[in-house]
Every structure is written in structure tokens, then in C-alpha cells.
Design goal:
This protein is an alpha/beta fold. The chain has helices spanning about 5-10, 10-25, 40-45, 65-85, 95-105, 135, 155-165, 180-190, 205-210, 240-255, 260-275, 280-300, 330-340, 365-370, 375-390, 395-410, and strands spanning about 30, 55, 60, 90, 115, 140-145, 170, 195-200, 220-225, 235-240, 305, 315-320, 340, 345, 360-365. The longest helix has 23 residues, at about 280-300. The structure holds pyridoxal-5'-phosphate (PLP).
Length: about 425
């Protein structure tokens, strides 16, 4: 990709931008929350709409000159409604965290109570972590996965809910490889008179394509990031019923944000349009099939896969049994040196710490975008195993780096940019 205008005024930034293109093309992006958007989404996101103020909503703006902003936001909303079958959609949240903030602002007062999955068990900072505004403004209790099975302990969740009487129960996770029983959590929420927020940040694309059960129409609020499996560029989204439509819209603007990032909303419109095409379903099916193959490859080689497999785009490996002396951080570093980019992650029943956890998390959305099939992913799984198992053997690392290069060459990215 050519950043000639940036280069003219700012060679340092141009170098870094070109370096990043090269990095993405020549490494394997296996961070489960990442993906590669299409050139069309890139173009829309870097458009002149970055210049436009459009506070308000289509047809009701606080500024003149919003004709095209309106057209684009309406397209994004209509396409999102069709993709997820939602009654009401707000496409203005700047990110998934801002989407969650919109919901909390709409239904909670400071001091109200949130029940959510523990961060080390797969939850998210914006679900009530003490370092996040949610942990500072609200009273938070956690539920957990069963450390034996790796599945959410729904019975314990129900007990916690009765005891704690939360105002909001949050479902939807960052590092949970299994399908979520949305109905079951909704029943608990109704029983204790709490709202149910289903945060599908990671699995927006899988839900849109119908390869993962949808909480839309079940949970009161559904939030998501738009840059993960849905591949529509950086941003957030909120879906709800007509009943809460105006509360949500007011909570997003003026409640929690100023002007919407219209260039990002253009990216969402284009990405959602792409996701409505039949090929997107094939893509999402490929993402899940590839994650299953990755989990199977790890298991065959003796790595412990949390919950024994996956229903989604991600695989969580607990290294404690197979490699008791290797931390997730060390595995991440060795893999990064070979061009496999993934992250160290806490595992259920974590015995180390969040900074130095015992697991690694690997996702298939970005590889599947590049055209990796199950055979290629099995190759990657084998390569990851060999690096983990020989993380200080230079010869093994060199061989792995070479194989990563070949795999990248066989699956080109952003070729015609
Ligand atoms: C990624 C993620 C988010 C949002 O993250 P942003 O970086 O703010 O877009 C929210 N919830 C969950 C469960 C996530 O995994």
C-alpha cells in the first residue's frame, strides 16, 4: 500500500504505516478479536466523512450539511437490522465498550448492581472490572465457568443472581469458546427482575451468519464490536426492541458521546453490506470449522483445550498440564518471534496472574479471511504446538518462521492496494 501523501509530510508515520501493512501481510493474525477488513471497508473508513460533524440522528441533526451522513447512517442501520433481525439499532457507539456504556447509562444509576462473568474466566473489562468505569460506578458481582468442564456454571449463576439481586446481568464474553444459552440467562434475569445485556462483541459475525445462536429478540439489549468477526471496521453497535429505542439513543448521544465517527459508520455500512452476501455465511462457517480443526490438532498433540473444543472462532489452551514450566506469556513471545501473533490468556481456575497467565487464546477469523482452509489451519496448529513444545530451540523456531512465511505467501492479503 502506498501512503504517498503521508510520506510527503511525515516520513516517520509513513514508515510505520507501511511497516504495519507488511506486518499484517507477513504474519498470521490469530488474536481472536482481530480480522482483516476488505479494501472497500478500508476506503470507506478513511473517507472525507472524518471531517463531518453529525451530532444527532438521521433527519434530526444539530448541524447543516448532513445529507450524505444521513444516507450512510440509514444504510448502516437498515443493513444491521436485516443482518441481526433487530427492531432497533444504534450504529454510533465508537467501540464495543462505548456500546456497553450506552446500555448502562440507559438503565442504571451509579451504585446499581451488575452481575457478570469474571474477567479471568473470559469476561470483559467493560463488564465491571475495578479498573474500568463500570467497576468504579457500579456494584459488581461475578459468576464463573465450572473449572472442571470449562462451561458456564448456569446453576451457580442463578444462585448468585437470587442472592445478589442485580439490576443488569451481562452475558457474552471475550474468551469463552462455547455457545451461550441465552434463554437460560434471560430466564434468570426475568426471575430476579434484572435487565439482560448480551455482549456479542466477538461473535457478531457468527450470529449474523446464523452459525451461532442469536440473543437478539431474547436479551433486552445486544451490543457488539464491528471490527471482530463481522469484519466491518472499528466501532460498536447496540441492538434492542422499540421499547428501549429512545432510551438507548439518548444514552449514546448526548449521554455518552459527542459527534458520531461518520467515517467509521461508512465502514460499518459497507461491511454490513458485504456480510449480507451469501459468501459471508460460507466465511463464517469456515471460521468455525477452522477453529474446530485447530482445537482438534492441539488435542491430538496433547495440549489441553479448555472445555475440550470449541463452538466458535476461538480456542483456549491451558498449558499447565502439558507444559507446567511454560507461561502463556513465554509461549506468546516465542510464537510472535516466528510470526504467529496471538495472546497469552487467563484460564478458568487460573493459578498464575492476569499479567502472567497460564494459557494462550487463538482465533481463526483473520486466517479464514485470507482463505485458510482446514488443512492449512491444521498445519498452523502443528506449527504452534512445535513452537510451544520447543520454545527455546532456535532450529525449531527458524523452521517455524520459514513455514509462516510460506503460508503467508500462499494466502496473500491486500495484494491490489
Ligand atoms: C472486544 C470486546 C468488547 C469491546 O471492545 P472494544 O475494544 O471497546 O471495541 C466488549 N465486550 C467484549 C466481550 C469484548 O470481547
Amino acid at each position: 500500500m502506498d501512503y504517498r501523501h503521508v510520506r510527503e509530510v511525515d516520513p516517520a508515520v509513513a514508515d510505520a504505516l507501511e511497516g504495519e501493512v507488511d506486518r499484517q501481510c507477513n504474519t498470521l493474525a490469530m488474536i481472536a478479536s482481530e480480522n482483516h477488513v476488505s479494501p472497500a471497508v478500508l476506503e470507506a473508513q478513511s473517507s472525507v466523512l472524518t471531517n463531518k460533524y453529525a451530532e444527532g440522528y438521521p433527519g434530526k441533526r444539530y448541524y447543516a450539511g448532513c445529507r450524505y451522513a444521513d444516507e450512510i447512517e440509514e444504510l448502516a442501520i437498515e443493513r444491521a437490522k436485516e443482518l441481526w433481525g433487530a427492531e432497533h439499532v444504534n450504529v454510533q457507539p465508537h467501540s464495543g465498550t462505548q456500546a456497553n456504556m450506552g446500555v448502562y447509562l440507559a438503565v442504571l444509576d451509579p451504585g446499581d448492581k451488575i452481575l457478570s462473568l469474571d474477567l479471568t474466566h473470559g469476561g470483559h473489562l467493560s463488564h465491571g472490572h475495578p479498573a474500568n468505569f463500570t467497576g468504579q460506578l457500579f456494584e459488581v458481582e461475578q459468576y464463573y465457568v465450572d473449572p472442571e468442564t470449562g462451561y458456564i456454571d448456569y446453576e451457580a449463576l442463578e444462585g448468585k443472581a437470587r442472592e445478589f439481586e442485580p439490576d443488569v446481568i451481562v452475558s457474552g464474553y471475550s474468551a469463552y469458546p462455547r455457545a451461550v444459552d441465552w434463554e437460560r440467562i434471560q430466564e434468570v434475569a426475568e426471575e430476579v427482575d434484572a435487565y439482560h445485556l448480551a455482549d456479542i462483541a466477538h461473535i457478531t459475525g457468527l450470529v449474523a451468519a446464523g452459525v451461532h445462536p442469536s440473543p437478539v429478540g431474547i436479551a433486552d439489549f445486544v451490543t457488539g464490536s464491528t471490527h471482530k468477526t463481522i469484519r466491518a471496521g472499528r466501532g460498536g453497535i447496540i441492538m434492542t426492541s422499540e421499547e428501549y429505542a429512545s432510551d438507548i439513543d439518548k444514552a449514546v448521544f448526548p449521554g455518552g458521546q459527542g459527534g458520531p465517527l461518520m467515517h467509521n459508520i461508512a465502514g460499518k455500512a459497507v461491511g454490513f453490506g458485504e456480510a449480507l452476501q451469501p459468501e459471508f455465511r460460507e466465511y463464517a462457517e469456515g471460521v468455525v470449522a477452522n477453529a474446530r480443526t485447530l482445537a482438534e490438532t492441539f488435542r491430538e498433540r496433547g495440549l489441553e483445550v479448555v472445555s475440550g473444543g470449541t463452538d466458535t472462532h476461538l480456542v483456549l489452551v491451558d498449558l499447565r498440564e502439558s507444559h507446567p514450566d511454560l507461561t502463556g506469556g513465554e509461549a506468546e513471545e516465542a510464537l510472535d518471534a516466528t510470526g504467529v501473533v496471538l495472546n497469552a490468556n487467563t484460564v478458568p481456575g487460573e493459578t498464575r496472574s492476569a499479567f502472567n497467565p497460564s494459557g494462550i487464546r487463538a482465533g481463526t477469523p483473520a486466517l479464514t479471511t485470507r482463505g485458510f482452509d482446514e488443512d492449512a489451519v491444521a498445519d498452523v496448529g502443528d506449527l504452534i504446538y512445535r513452537v510451544v513444545d520447543n520454545h527455546d530451540d532456535e532450529a525449531v523456531l527458524d523452521e517455524a518462521s520459514e513455514r509462516v512465511r510460506e503460508l503467508c505467501d500462499e494466502h496473500p492479503l491486500y495484494e491490489d492496494l
